[in-house]
Design a protein that fits this description.
This is DUF488 domain-containing protein. The longest helix is centred in the middle third of the chain and has 13 residues, at about 65-75. The chain contains five helices and four strands; from the N terminus they run ββαβαααβα. The chain is an alpha/beta fold. The N and C termini lie close together (about 5 Å). It has a four-stranded parallel β-sheet with strand order 1-4-2-3, with helices on one face. It has one domain.
Length: about 120
């Protein structure tokens, strides 16, 4: 795919080259003001379901299964996925998340899903 997609913790400083900043968590991150977030969009509906998020619990040993289950949820959530793809067609998008684990979180899984086409 020929699009520019970045994943970043929302606690990092916004950068001029972030493009459209999209928060992909269902819950607003603690201690982050709306001004600091500098969002183009808060896309709650692309986040994993509460049930899946609770089951995963950011446990690295559940990562592979989490990705599989999350992809299935995304497959059934065509409207928000299309919305993200349209943003990517327009330019750079930075997916933002609040989790501490930078390798095992829904934004990383979502980026993988979008890159896979």
């Amino acid at each position: 795919m020929g699009f520019d997609l970045v994943v970043k913790r929302i606690y990092e400083q916004p950068a001029p080259d972030d493009g459209q900043r999209v928060l992909v968590d269902r819950i607003w991150p603690r201690g982050v003001s709306r001004e600091h977030a500098a969002l183009a969009l808060w896309l709650k509906d692309v986040a994993p379901s509460d049930g899946l998020r609770g089951w995963f619990g950011h446990e690295p040993e559940r990562w592979e299964e989490f990705q599989k289950r999350y992809r299935a949820e995304l497959d059934g959530n065509g409207e928000v996925v299309r919305q993200l793809r349209a943003m990517l067609d327009a330019g750079k998008v930075t997916l933002l998340y609040g989790a501490h684990d930078e390798a095992h979180n829904n934004a990383v899984a979502l980026a993988g899903y979008l890159r896979a086409g």
